[in-house]
Amino acid sequence: MMTMSINNNNSTSINNNNNDEQPEMPDPDYIKMFVGQVPRSMDENDLRLMFEEFGRVHQINVLRDKVTGASKGC
């Protein structure tokens, strides 16, 4: 199971301090999405690349085993 927030509107955000840091909290228009059946072979970077096609990904949380650190995917 994985959680991510995606902004699916096509608005442009302007950052006045000229750096590319993402904001601490997502915009209220963001979507919180839960995705299951994620292959264990995929990590956060793979998932970000896959979902950024649809909008900016704010956060990805892959559920992992507390002892081994292995993904709890399918």
TrEMBL record:
Asked if RNA-binding is a keyword of the record, the answer is: yes
* Disordered: annotated span: 1-29
Specify the superkingdom.
Answer: Eukaryota
Q: Which UniProt keywords apply?
A: RNA-binding
Q: Where is the composition biased (Low complexity)?
A: 1-19
Report a single Gene Ontology molecular function. RNA binding
Q: Which residues form the RRM domain?
A: 31-74
Q: Which Pfam families match?
A: RRM_1
Q: Which InterPro entries match?
A: Nucleotide-bd_a/b_plait_sf (IPR012677), RBD_domain_sf (IPR035979), RRM_dom (IPR000504)
The leader peptide range reads none
From the Swiss-Prot or TrEMBL record, give the protein name.
Arrest
Naturally occurring in which organism (per UniProt): Pararge aegeria
